[in-house]
Amino acid sequence: MKRDGKKMLRRVKTLRFLRNEVVLITGGSSGIGKELAFEAARRGAIVVVVSRNLEKLQEVAKKCLILSGRPAFAYQLDVTDPDQIDDVLSKVQHEVGGIDVLINSAGLGDFIPVVKESYRSMEKMVHTNLLALMYISRCVAKQMMDQGYGAIINMGSFAGKLPTPNSAVYSATKAGVIQFDNVLRMEVADYGVQVLTVNPGPIDTPFFDKADNDYTYRAHLPKWVFISPEDLARRIWNNVGYKTREINVPGYVAYLGWAYQVIPGLGDWAIKKFFDFQQDKKNL
């Protein structure tokens, strides 16, 4: 079927304002997901948040209702369960309406040497950070292609571009997100669907309390490196409805990633030096 490119472009541009647009956010009970929900509500969106913690979700939804003056919804969801994903997406479609913007922000990390990672830990990270994101994106992309417009925002990471010690599995999942988006973007572009990949450095959220509970990773990072989740949320929404492919925060992340590809040997040396990393007994 021939599509009206100008009409689809006009519809995508309406997402820049978010007013009355249906926004679905995974991992919406805390961290960057919560801040994205609040900022979307301030801009007049109809916010739908999903995560495993229903009590926290309901608190977020209540605040979104106050901020936007529009309905807000909370659905309990374990993103590693495809049957739950299908069920919740069906409920959203029938109870709220078609999804105009999807943000996959659910994620977890475990910053320890890869030789210490258990199979269960690796499996959980891959399922949560990558497989669930791909499946949810796939389901929602189909709906957006049918309706002729939409935006899919997936949270990658600077770790997907620049490797750091003690983050092998986490980095692998985020590199997978970046490459998945590169292909998805090509496949849905002619249907008026934007695919935006967000690659932030460390964000000042509870994520690090779980991923780096002994502070070995965080100890090497100065406080100024950490990104404000509120500022990041505003920046993400400011790029929805445009032709933006990636957001790299801080901006130098993209340049460091490029430099690493060109001179990886020097990159390995510099990264290990920065993190004071040695493969000795304490790391095994």
UniProtKB/TrEMBL annotation:
The keyword Signal does not apply. Keywords: Oxidoreductase. Gene3D superfamilies: NAD(P)-binding Rossmann-like Domain. The keyword Cell division does not apply. One of its GO terms (molecular function) is oxidoreductase activity. It comes from the Bacteria. GO terms for cellular component: membrane. PANTHER family: DEHYDROGENASE/REDUCTASE SDR FAMILY MEMBER 7B, DEHYDROGENASE_REDUCTASE SDR FAMILY MEMBER 7B. Belongs to the short-chain dehydrogenases/reductases (SDR) family. This is Oxidoreductase, short chain dehydrogenase/reductase family protein.
